[in-house]
């Protein structure tokens, strides 16, 4: 296993930052910045799965591949499932890697880290986390926590994900970062499942997979990539690009 089909789901609608994927970051739309970082990860072909022609045009204008998908998908997972079927109808790629479209500062090594747990055949989904070292974020429900145990192969096995501060007691708290590498069959099964009780309670889609018995393993990365959700986030992303 050395390659994956990388898909970046992208929707034009965003309440806090209108037309977010097309927001300019130092001369390029944000979705193009994410596309370039995914290409730099060098684990396989990259495509943007979008619901609007303006996003597709921006991607095409910068030499990328865009796939138009239905506008009514309930989640990014459903969107990448449709896009995977359109991009790779013959199923040549066993792994589909989902990179969020609002992380223009994601490091290529973080993308590769999500892919790494799938070296174990029993793992259905790979993802990433980083230690939360700032006390103000440990109790913040917007920082999703991963409760894990070492798997003996250099990664961790996910036991639970929560918006609460967990586990209790002394020791590190890890923030989950929503980049997923799915085995193709696991993704197909996942999107057929109805939302699960814990998923609806915590508002965390990955709990649907755990409740269905799918194994999720997690790589640790050094720091969390900043996601862009507000005009203030966008300014910070611009400053970071200008400083690089």
Task: Reconstruct the topology from this structure.
Layout: E1 5-10, E2 24-25, E3 28-29, H1 30-41, E4 46-50, H2 53-61, E5 66-68, H3 76-87, E6 95-98, H4 108-115, E7 125-131, H5 135-138, E8 145-150, E9 156-162, E10 174-183, H6 184-192, H7 197-202, H8 206-211, E11 216-220, H9 231-243
Parallel strand pairs: 1-4, 1-6, 4-5, 7-11
Antiparallel strand pairs: 2-3, 6-10, 7-10, 8-9, 8-10, 9-11
Structural key phrases:
alpha/beta; five-stranded mixed barrel; two-stranded antiparallel ribbon; globular; 244 residues; 9 helices
Structure description:
The protein has 244 residues and is of the alpha/beta class. Helix content is 32%, strand content 23%. It contains 9 helices and 11 strands. The strands form 2 sheets. The protein has a 5-stranded mixed β-barrel with strand order 7-10-8-9-11. Helix 2 links the parallel strand 4 and strand 5 (66-68). The protein is globular. The two termini are 33 Å apart.
Give the biggest beta sheet.
5 strands, mixed, barrel
Report the portion of residues in β strands: 15-25%
- Spans of at least 5 consecutive residues with low confidence: none
Please give the radius of gyration in angstroms: 17 Å
Strand order of the largest sheet: 7-10-8-9-11
Mean pLDDT: 95
Query: What is the total tally of β strands?
Result: 11
Order of helices and strands: EEEHEHEHEHEHEEEHHHEH
Work out the helix count. Answer: 9
Q: Judging from the principal axes of the Cα atoms, what is the shape?
A: globular
Structural class: alpha/beta
The proportion of residues forming helix, as a percent range, comes to 25-40%
């Amino acid at each position: 296993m050395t390659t994956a089909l990388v898909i970046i789901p992208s929707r034009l609608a965003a309440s806090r930052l209108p037309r977010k994927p097309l927001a300019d970051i130092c001369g390029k739309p944000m979705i193009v910045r994410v596309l370039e970082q995914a290409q730099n990860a060098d684990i396989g072909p990259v495509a943007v799965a979008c619901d609007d022609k303006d996003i597709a045009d921006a991607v095409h204008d910068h030499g990328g591949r865009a796939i138009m998908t239905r506008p009514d998908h309930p989640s990014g997972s459903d969107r990448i499932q449709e896009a995977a079927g359109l991009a790779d109808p013959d199923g040549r790629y066993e792994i589909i890697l989902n990179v969020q479209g609002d992380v223009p500062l994601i490091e290529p090594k973080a993308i590769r880290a999500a892919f790494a747990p799938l070296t174990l055949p029993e793992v259905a989904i790979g993802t990433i986390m980083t230690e939360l070292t700032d006390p103000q974020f440990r109790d913040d429900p917007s920082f999703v926590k991963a409760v894990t145990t070492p798997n003996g192969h250099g990664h961790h096995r996910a036991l639970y994900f929560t918006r609460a501060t967990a586990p209790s007691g002394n020791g590190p708290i890890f923030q989950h970062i929503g980049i997923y590498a799915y085995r193709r069959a696991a993704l197909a099964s996942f999107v057929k499942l109805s939302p699960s009780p814990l998923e609806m309670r915590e508002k965390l889609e990955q709990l649907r997979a755990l409740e269905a018995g799918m194994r999720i393993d997690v790589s640790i990365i050094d720091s969390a990539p900043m996601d862009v959700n507000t005009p203030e986030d966008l300014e910070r992303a611009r400053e970071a690009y200008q400083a690089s």
